[in-house]
Amino acid sequence: MDNMYLVFALSSLIYMAGASRAPCVELNDGNLMPIVALGTGRGTAKENESVDEVRKAVFWALEAGYRHIDTAAVYDDEEQVGQGIAEAIQKNIVTREDIFVTTKLWNDKHRREQVVPALQESLRRLGLAYVDLFLIHFPVATKEDGSADYVDYLETWQGMEDAKAQGLVKSIGVSNFNIDQLQRLIADSRTRPVVNEVETSPTFTQESMVAFCRQNGIVVMGYSPFGFFVGRDSSMNIDKSALLQIAEKYGKSFGQVILRYLIERGVVPIPKSTNPKRIAQNIDLFDFSLTEEEVAVISGYNTNKRVIHPVDWKDYPFYPFGQE
Q: Of these residues, 15, 66, 75, 316, which one is catalytic?
């Protein structure tokens, strides 16, 4: 599957002058996915902002050239994502066929018979007839009250396959799976996941995960792509001088260099913002590329520490964070 990553390697050559627009990677089922996505959800709008900021951000992103929007049922913003998409379609900025929409199945809908109805609810909120990518959000099943439920993610995956067979989704994948879980899913399923969406950044590089997925034809999508360089943890004592020197060399911001770094590694970054200028900046990544040495320098910021610490599911079956 090395050809899958050729698109990443040549992305600066594929980019043409004009509006920034991410090139695509070919997934293992033959579908194409843009290699930068706008992240939405609880981290998109600040706590003091209305969820309507998500609608605006989606519209601004599509206007700026994004063609991939990432959401999830648990983010409670699918309706606003759909509104932003509908506005962009109404104003002839995009057609539905131009856009790649990703959403995710939450933990309390893991039984096979629950998967298709859960996706149908997501589609209703989004105002769409189908999504392009549907992911199992975590390999952990819960009841509606959040308590543990013993449902094997292999059963959940059968429901995902049902959704694809019914034409409700074009591609199916997973999120927050570790390597052992991916190996088991590949060995015991008819359909290989096209994506594993996990936290990936210069401060949490996930080298083994990225290598495993590359070897097995699975694209890594990376949430929290800026790691400890932004947010409430950005006060960590990190010497940014090497990163800033690289940014100065290319006339880019350090954030753009980080996103380009992930692309160079074959990771699809998922930056979040509700600032129209920052949204546009975060996709202006295809008129430069980094050297192998620069990628190595940026990887040197790795701390092997997560920014996102999910609910403590360690006592639940199939807990995902035992191995990267």
A: 75
